[in-house]
Every structure is written in C-alpha cells, then in structure tokens.
C-alpha cells in the first residue's frame, strides 16, 4: 500500500498539533492525531491558565485527568512540575502520550494510566502526597451536561485527598454553572473564550 503523503502546510490538521508555550520545552510540538475524542486547550487559554497558576506548578505532581494530547501535563512539566500522571481512556491516545514523553526526553517524569478518569478516581488516595498536586479536569464539554454528577464527584474526590497546598483546575464552556462545583465559594472563575477556567487553590486536607 502506498504511503499517504504528508498534509500540505495549509491543511488545518497539520496546524492542529499543540505546542508547548512556556518553560524548558517551549516551542516543542506534541504528537497529535485530530479526532472527536480529543480537544486540546487553545494556546491562549493555556497561556492564561499557567499565568494564573504561577509558581504553584513548580515541584508539584501534575494530574491530567482527561489527558487527550497531554498539552496540560506536558506544559506543567515544562514549567517545573516534578512529575505528571496522565489518565486517558482511549488506548491509542494513551499510547501516543508515551511516545510524546519519549520524544521530549521526559519519559522518566511521566506515567500514563490508560482508563476512565471517573473509575480511576477511586485510586487517588494511593498517589504520593509528599508535594502538592495541580489537578487538571478538562473533559469534553459535553460531559458537563451529560455527566454533571460524575464530574462534580470527581472534583470532590480530588479535593478530599489532595495534599495541603494543592490546586484544582476545571475547564468548562460558558454554559456550565460553577455553582455546581463542590464548595462553590472556594473557586474563582475566569472566562477566556471559548472556555471558562475555574481554579481552587490552597487546598487544606
């Protein structure tokens, strides 16, 4: 079978591969095959998010619970996170995360756990608690309508077991009501179209 030629430079799929926008790996591209399971966070939204997080990322354990392309977790590593755990239920995408980690030279700081984030949440208490976590909850936006209760339960589980000083980030669309989040007064929301970022920092066990 003849090999498929590479897409032309102006093909939207060629430009879809996320790039790391800050830190030691700035400018590196992530392996990415566009499909309906993966929605990388827009560069400008991700840049705003990490500006908001500031030094909280350095030395932290990053949890990318709906990993997709891994843009959030790899960005965290680039900006000084000690390790990242990716949770991704689509097995081919999980395999891609491992290849990307090796290509970036950070495989020793990356763990990929194939599986459903809602089920995997039951194992959160097994994770290291020697450093704060930065937990990213950035699922397909349809989940905010179709699995609202499951998402809220997942966020509550992270908040319940995370070490002191941890931060949770939820990325939603503007249709989601942040009052549904656990302890809603403890969150700050920042609209950055087309997304809304909800952050809860300084968790206390």
Describe this entry's structure for a reader.
- There is one protein chain.
- By secondary structure, the chain is an alpha/beta fold.
- The protein has one domain: Vaccinia Virus protein VP39 (Rossmann fold), CATH 3.40.50.
- The chain contains seven helices and seven strands; from the N terminus they run ααβαβαβαβααβββ.
- Strands 3-2-1-4-5-7-6 form a seven-stranded mixed β-sheet, with helices on both faces.
- The longest helix is centred in the middle third of the chain and has 14 residues.
- The chain starts with 11 loop residues before the first helix and ends in a 5-residue tail after the last strand.
- The N terminus is likely disordered.
Low-confidence stretches: 1-15
Reading off the top of the CATH hierarchy, the class is best stated as Alpha Beta
Individual helix count: 7
The ordered H/E elements are HHEHEHEHEHHEEE
Helix content: 25-40%
What is the spatial order of strands in the main beta sheet? Answer: 3-2-1-4-5-7-6
How far is the N terminus from the C terminus?
57 Å
What summary fits the major beta sheet?
7 strands, mixed
Mean pLDDT comes to 88
Q: What is the CATH topology assignment?
A: Rossmann fold
Query: β content, as a range?
Result: 15-25%
Number of strands: 7
CATH homolog superfamily = Vaccinia Virus protein VP39
Shape: globular
